[in-house]
Write a structure and sequence with these properties.
6 helices, single chain, Four Helix Bundle (Hemerythrin (Met), subunit A), mainly alpha, elongated
C-alpha cells in the first residue's frame, strides 16, 4: 500500500511540475527576445555535468534498493569492494551526489544573480528560479529522506521487509526527481 500511495502522490507532483512547465512555456512565448538574451548567460556545460551527476545518483540509489531487497543494510566486505556494499553505502553515495547537485545549482544561482538575472528582475528570472528552485527543494527533500532511511537502517535491530520497502519508496521519489530534472534541463538549457 505504501508503494501505491507513493505512486499516487508522485502523480500529483507530476501535475505540479506540469504547471511549472506550462508557466515557463507561456512566459517564453510572450517574451522571446528576453529569453534569447537571458539564456545566453546560462552555463550549459556546467549544467550538463551537474545533470550527469544527478542521473548517476539514480543508479547508485537503485543499487541501494537491490541491496535492501537482499535485506543487506551494510557492506559485507571492504570499503572498496563495491559488490559487497549494502543499502547504507549506496545511499550515502547517492546523498553525496545529490548534495553536489544542489551545491552546483546554488553556485549557478549566484553567478546568474551577478549577471543581473534575479527572480524579480523579469519574467525569465521568475520562470527560471521558480522551476529550478522548486526542483532543488524536491531534491533537498529526497536528501532528507535518504538520511532518514540510513538512520533507520542503523537503528533497526533487524533489517527486514519494512525497512526495505521504505528504501524502495524513497528510490521512487528520487527517480521521479531525476526524470523531472532531465525534462527541465532539456527545456531550460536547450530549448531556445
Amino acid at each position: 500500500m505504501v508503494q501505491v500511495g507513493t505512486m499516487v502522490w508522485l502523480s500529483s507532483e507530476l501535475m505540479f511540475f506540469g504547471g511549472l512547465f506550462a508557466m515557463y512555456f507561456t512566459l517564453k512565448s510572450t517574451s522571446p527576445e528576453l529569453w534569447a538574451e537571458s539564456t545566453a548567460t546560462l552555463n550549459v556545460p556546467l549544467a550538463f555535468v551537474n545533470t550527469l551527476i544527478l542521473v548517476a545518483s539514480s543508479f547508485t540509489a537503485q543499487a541501494g534498493v537491490f541491496a535492501a531487497e537482499r535485506l543487506q543494510p551494510r557492506r559485507t566486505g571492504g570499503l572498496l569492494a563495491l559488490k559487497s556494499w549494502g543499502m547504507v553505502e549506496w545511499f550515502i553515495l547517492t546523498f553525496i551526489m545529490g548534495a553536489i547537485f544542489v551545491s552546483v545549482q546554488c553556485y549557478e544561482y549566484a553567478v546568474l544573480v551577478s549577471h543581473g538575472i534575479t527572480i524579480d528582475a523579469h519574467a525569465y528570472g521568475s520562470a527560471f528560479y521558480i522551476t529550478t528552485g522548486f526542483h532543488a527543494i524536491h531534491v533537498t527533500g529526497g536528501l532528507i529522506a535518504f538520511l532518514f532511511i540510513i538512520g533507520r537502517a542503523y537503528l533497526a535491530k533487524r533489517f527486514g521487509h519494512h525497512e526495505a520497502t521504505s528504501a524502495i519508496v524513497v528510490s521512487y521519489y528520487w527517480h521521479f526527481v531525476d526524470v523531472v530534472w532531465i525534462a527541465l534541463f532539456a527545456i531550460v538549457y536547450f530549448l531556445k
